[in-house]
């Protein structure tokens, strides 16, 4: 294991640092009779977090760990991390430059601009946005806040796990989408052996599955309905090592199952999540991940930045 | 007081009857720093209830209290109660005929039809829909489930209060929209003297305020952005007597404040509520209702049936 892999104690330290600046988002539990599944499903409604996604946790933790006197940050992402960095930067009184693909949804770009950050639209995917951001960071001296593959980002994301242990103390399983893998790795660090953490990927963004199969991090082509949330070209080193260590097998879900899960959340619960935030639920509703009778699976609904106010 | 006024014991009986058939919807608490208000705001996210609004509570309680052998119910409403009766009827294996104004949002009509109920579109407002429903009930022998002015409806709605006492044990104030007043009266019965229950009306649907001013129930013209949720032509007798008994003063809010509160819920929390469900929050954000430092106000977000999946 590399030295930069966060552990539970690091997540606890991040939670102490974040304190009340992060919302304790609610959990809604669905009984088996509601879902047709054998066990209970506890939906973690993290789309209600500051900036509209879990990314606020890692972004603010990262900003709070910057050297004193830092006045500028930059970030690249599909949009959610960028919005979160914009939020955290404004909160800390520093500037933010955010690089996103030209294909990012208007709801994500509006978020970023709404926090006063400068948006740079980059042709290509998150990979190209990250390259542009790295060049900017070197040229301008702005501190780069990585969307998923940095110790502070992962430890911050993991703070969701500490909340969940209190909110759903009997959980057997935690199901979470994996793009770059920051949230997956953070939850794995937080839950340690208390509950299994199951990563789920869109079959059109299979970075973790492909890397585990290859035995090393590989780049994959990314696309599909959840690409704006989970379109990292390669899974992070931290998440890769976490998955290798635990021996977990990622599950892949199809776009049509993601869209169906999104419709389920809206029709049944009036929760309007972004497609990437419906990937974990899709794996349960589609039958790829099982929750047995008497068990409770936590399912993270990770963000809601896809749609403008209808 | 009339004999049909539900009391706390009646609400407790309704909660026992409903059991696990009703969802325990989550609460999201906002600190003063988030809202700019002096005290805390605890949002009761009742739009996540079965059928997309609190109406499921009263509708199912009413259906479960029907005489054995009842095979058909009918209902009239702006749409939310109709959807709730459709849901409760399907659950109990009986038929439902629902009368709604032709102006009801498609999201409400789709809900009702989605539960297998027959929809009857009526020119006019909820008043005309109620008249048509009454005629249907007499002609066809279907049991009429009143949207707000029946003992079982109000006692069922009040079950939200029992949940809230557990979820927000330190609440000082409960702020709730009032149309026909079923939820207001139910919460007043549930909370008794534990917390003040403050009814809020759109200034274009001022049924309770006008009736209290007149000293008797009067009909008012209804309109505005929340008319599909709160457009009862006159407040119910139960709610009227409850308000007279407590001496509460209803607060009126303008359409623009309701729309602003709806935008706030979406922009800050990714909660997509219907306008009528934003009336209570509007009264706090607009300054008509105060929550003092150290206090917590529960604010009910009562439904989300206004928009189709974007």
- Interface with most residues: A-B, 28 and 28 residues
Structure annotation, total helices of chain A: 13
Structural class of chain A: alpha/beta
Terminus-to-terminus distance of chain A: 47 Å
CATH architecture label of the largest domain in chain A: 3-Layer(aba) Sandwich
Tell me, briefly, the overall form of chain A: globular
Order of helices and strands of chain A: HEHEHEHEHEHEHEHEHHHEHHE
% residues in beta strands of chain A: 15-25%
Specify the oligomeric state: homodimer
Strand order of the largest sheet of chain A: 1-2-10-7-8-9
Radius of gyration of chain A: 18 Å
Q: Count of DSSP E strands of chain A?
A: 10
Largest sheet of chain A: 6 strands, mixed
Low-confidence stretches of chain A: none
Number of domains of chain A: 2
Q: Averaged pLDDT of chain A, please?
A: 96
The third-level CATH topology of the largest domain in chain A is: Rossmann fold
Specify the helix fraction band of chain A. Answer: 40-55%
The CATH C-level name of the largest domain in chain A is: Alpha Beta
Structure description:
- Helix content of chain A is 43%, strand content 16%.
- The first copy, chain A, has 310 residues and is of the alpha/beta class.
- Chain A has 2 domains: 8-53 and 152-301, 3-Layer(aba) Sandwich (Rossmann fold); 55-149, Rossmann fold (3-Layer(aba) Sandwich).
- In chain A, the strands form 2 sheets. Chain A has a 6-stranded mixed sheet, with helices on both faces. Chain A has a 4-stranded parallel sheet with strand order 5-4-3-6, with helices on both faces.
- In chain A, strand 4, helix 5 and strand 5 (118-122) form a beta-alpha-beta unit.
- The termini of chain A are far apart.
- The A-B interface holds A 20, 23-29, 31, 45, 47-48, 52, 114, 262-263, 266-267, 269-272, 304-305, 307-310 and B 20, 23-29, 31, 45, 47-48, 52, 114, 262-263, 266-267, 269-272, 304-305, 307-310.
